[in-house]
Amino acid sequence: MNQLVLQATVVERAALRHTPAGLPALDVRLAHASQVEHAGMPRQVALEIHATAIGETAGRLQQLQVGQEALFQGFLGKQRSGRGVMFHISSFQSVPHTSAP
Question: Name one GO cellular component term (predicted).
Fold first, then answer.
């Protein structure tokens, strides 16, 4: 199964484009940072990943601001260039910003 769920922040957003079939498409770069347990030890994890959304999801993704956090769901595939990994976003929901007291 190829399924990814990632809570991440939009750090870059390209201009909305259209596929050859005429569907809206939007490319973004997402950043994630957290601490996980690996082999019984805490580990800091930080990454950036290229992501894309097509159709209605692209239109909704365009509404997110750079710096806004969301919970993204989708799958991994190769980038259009054939090199590297692309996160194909199928759905997402905004994560409310909470400030520390």
Answer: primosome complex
